[in-house]
Each structure stands twice: as C-alpha cells, then as structure tokens.
Amino acid sequence: MKSITIKGSERESVGKKATKALRDAGQVPCVLYGGDKPVHFSAEEKAFKNLVYTPNAHTVVIEAGKSSYNAILQDIQVHPVSDKILHIDFFQLNDKKEIMMEVPVKVTGTSPGVLGGGVLRLNQRKLKVKALPANLPDFVTADISELEMGNKLYVTKLATNNFKLMHPDNTVVAQVRISRAAMKAAQEAAKAAKGAPAKGKKK
C-alpha cells in the first residue's frame, strides 16, 4: 500500500487552551495510539490533504520530532459547517500484527449484462480488509466480466492475496440491474408476442 509522510511536532500541552491555540495557528492536533503510550503531536492542516481528501487508502509515516512512526488513520473530526479538520487519531502499525482498514473497490472487466442494456450498480465502494501491514492492498479488484443482466457479484467471488475480507459471504459488491429502457423493450416484446397469431393458425 502507498504511504504518505506527515511531518509534525510533538506537543506536551494537551488542554483546551493549547488545542485552540494550535487550531488558530492552522495546526491540527493529533494523537497516535497503539504504542507503549499515546503520542500527542500536531501538523499543518494542508499536510493532510492527500490523506483525507481522496478516495484512495494510504498508510502514514508520522515524523514527529526525532521519532518516526508507521500508522493508519483511525478517526477524524471535522467541523460541521466549515469542514475544517479539528482532530485526527492515528493507530501505530506493528509489522507482525494484522490490522483492519477500509480500502476502495476497483471495478475491472466488461459486463455482458451492461452491454445488453443493463445498469451497473456498485453496492460497496469500500471494503474492510485484514492483513499484515506489508500485505495491505491499495484496492480490492471486482471483476464484472461474468455479470449478466440481473446477476450479483458477491464478496466471496473476489480475489484476495495475503489479506482477508471482513464481510459476510452474502455481501453484494456489485450487480447489473435491468434498465427502464430494457424493461420497457421486454414488456413491448412480450405484448407483441402475445398478440401475434399462433403457428399453424390463420388470421
């Protein structure tokens, strides 16, 4: 999985006044969990642009002071009106311990059902995976090459390589629905066939 580096500064004061002062200065207060003790640090808000405002999944290298940590974004608080980042929680990675995180679904292939007039619906845009940090995928591939009209692609049909999908077997990832135009054409064809004279009978 691709990684993004966040350069920040460790902070000792974690009270409300100190936190407000950081935000007023364009800094985002953050906490890194998962290690021996929580690490409090801050970084410029623009440093998180490629991590937060993207559909892609990334691991993070946090450089705070003289220390460096490998982590993933765990939780983020955003202002309800301005969308300004208020706080971010990270979780430190351990190379020998599996981690769970959501990664995007990437659709590949051409569906016969779509070519026949159906409409592709992506039910799951992200899926939760579990893997060692080194095996975390950038995305999960959903091959729709065999999806006919009305068919569904279940999570059990997805290829996994050194990672597990943390979803029930009946989870639908994608499906091809009959479009209104195709449905109307089918109804008109059925009406036409119903009104046609039977074979061997004269009008």
Automatic annotation (TrEMBL):
InterPro entries: Rbsml_bL25/Gln-tRNA_synth_N, Ribosomal_bL25/Gln-tRNA_synth, Ribosomal_bL25_b-dom, Ribosomal_bL25_C, Ribosomal_bL25_long, Ribosomal_L25_dom, Ribosomal_uL5_bac-type
Gene3D superfamilies to which the protein is assigned, alphabetical: Ribosomal protein L25, beta domain, Ribosomal Protein L25, Chain P
Gene Ontology annotations of biological process type: translation
Residue span, Large ribosomal subunit protein bL25 beta domain: 99-178
Keyword set, alphabetical order: Ribonucleoprotein, Ribosomal protein, RNA-binding, rRNA-binding
One example GO MF annotation: structural constituent of ribosome
Cellular component annotations (GO), alphabetically ordered: cytosolic large ribosomal subunit
Record text on subunit structure and interactions: Part of the 50S ribosomal subunit; part of the 5S rRNA/L5/L18/L25 subcomplex. Contacts the 5S rRNA. Binds to the 5S rRNA independently of L5 and L18.
Family: Belongs to the bacterial ribosomal protein bL25 family. CTC subfamily.
PANTHER family: RIBOSOMAL PROTEIN L25/GLN-TRNA SYNTHETASE, ANTI-CODON-BINDING DOMAIN-CONTAINING PROTEIN, RIBOSOMAL PROTEIN L25_GLN-TRNA SYNTHETASE, ANTI-CODON-BINDING DOMAIN-CONTAINING PROTEIN
Protein name: Large ribosomal subunit protein bL25
